[in-house]
UniProtKB/TrEMBL annotation:
EC number: 2.8.1.1
Organism this protein belongs to: Xenorhabdus bovienii str. kraussei Quebec
Reaction(s) catalysed by this chain's protein: thiosulfate + [thioredoxin]-dithiol = [thioredoxin]-disulfide + hydrogen sulfide + sulfite + 2 H(+); thiosulfate + hydrogen cyanide = thiocyanate + sulfite + 2 H(+)
Gene that encodes the chain: glpE
Protein name: Thiosulfate sulfurtransferase GlpE
Keyword tags: Cytoplasm, Transferase
InterPro entries for the chain: GlpE_sulfurtransferase, Rhodanese-like_dom, Rhodanese-like_dom_sf, Thiosulf_sulfurTrfase
Length: 107
């Protein structure tokens, strides 16, 4: 694949439930600490090398931001880094938190 795909929250939730994709959250540290998808990897400039070293490049990756816009650039970056299947989650964490509160870790 040479381009990311978009995925709606319902599809992302099914991947999350079935553990068939890795959730990556690119929001700022304060927002991530306040609440994030259970099991999400917090992707920052500081953690990018960890992701690249630990990742299975064949496993699908779902990228989440606040509303589904910034995640598109990050998703394309991950495609360019060699990930086979990368999704940007439409609506981002805003929709995810409202739709699936049971799938959110909060402080």
């Amino acid at each position: 694949m040479d381009r990311f795909q978009t995925i709606n929250p319902e599809q992302a939730y099914q991947h999350w439930l079935n553990k068939t994709a890795v959730m990556v959250d690119i929001r700022d540290p304060q927002s991530f600490r306040a609440g994030h998808t259970t099991g999400a990897f917090h992707l920052t400039n500081e953690t990018l090398n960890n992701l690249l070293q630990e990742a299975d490049f064949d496993q699908p990756v779902m990228v989440m931001c606040y509303h589904g816009h910034s995640s598109q650039g990050a998703a394309q970056y991950l495609v360019n880094m060699g990930f086979e299947t990368v999704y940007s989650v439409n609506g981002g964490f805003d929709v995810w938190q409202r739709s699936y509160p049971e799938a959110v870790n909060t402080l």
